[in-house]
């Protein structure tokens, strides 16, 4: 399912899906003022939440895990890379095993592709 929605509150919503490694993966983007929230998954669950923001004092964005398993660096790492790429604050929830390197690469490449074709959604 694709398409932006405007909630009337300055938050716009964009959804897209892709079949990756034979499973449907859904992406839900909420564009916020100065950043965005990105949810990635196969089922409607929120088991982790990471946030990253660029810093004047360091070239690498600051990142922390707000919710979820702290031994899983996947959500924090991905939110950090997206913050660096977009120069925006990124909230990210990923309900996929990003420890699988193939899946993580496919997910990140699909996000980059969507950012290139729909920069206004981020």
Residue share in helices? 10-25%
Oligomeric state of the chains?
single chain
CATH topology: Ribosomal Protein S5, domain 2
**CATH level 1 class label:** Alpha Beta
Rg, Cα atoms, Å? 14 Å
Our count of domains comes out at 1
Strand order, largest beta sheet: 1-2-3-4-7-5-6
In whole angstroms, the N-to-C terminal distance is: 17 Å
Average pLDDT, rounded to a whole number, is: 91
Number of helices: 2
Coarse shape: globular
**DSSP strand content:** 35-45%
Secondary structure tally: strands? 7
The H-and-E topology, N to C, reads as EEEEEEHEH
CATH architecture: 2-Layer Sandwich
Structural notes for this entry:
By secondary structure, this protein is α+β, with helices and mostly antiparallel strands. It has one domain (3-121): Ribosomal Protein S5, domain 2. Helices cover 25% and strands 39% of the residues. The protein is built from two helices and seven strands; from the N terminus they run ββββββαβα. The chain has helices at 74-86, 101-117; strands at residues 3-6, 12-20, 23-32, 35-41, 49-53, 62-67, 89-94. Strands 1-2-3-4-7-5-6 form a seven-stranded mixed sheet, with helices on one face. A hairpin with an 8-residue loop joins strand 5 and strand 6. It starts with a strand and ends in a 5-residue tail after the last helix. The mean pLDDT is 91.
Describe this protein with a few key phrases.
Ribosomal Protein S5, domain 2; Proteasome assembly chaperone 4; globular; seven-stranded mixed beta sheet; PAC4; 2 helices; alpha+beta
């Amino acid at each position: 399912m694709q398409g932006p929605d405007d909630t009337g509150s300055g938050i716009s919503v964009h959804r897209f899906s892709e079949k990756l490694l034979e499973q449907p993966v859904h992406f839900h983007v909420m564009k916020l003022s100065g950043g965005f929230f990105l949810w990635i998954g196969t089922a409607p669950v929120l088991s982790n939440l990471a946030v990253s923001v660029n810093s004047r004092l360091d070239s690498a964005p600051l990142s922390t895990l707000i919710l979820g398993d702290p031994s899983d660096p996947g959500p924090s790492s991905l939110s950090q890379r997206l913050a660096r790429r977009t120069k925006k604050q990124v909230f990210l929830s990923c309900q996929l095993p990003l420890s699988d390197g193939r899946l993580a690469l496919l997910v990140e490449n699909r996000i980059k592709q969507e950012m290139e074709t729909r920069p206004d959604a981020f």
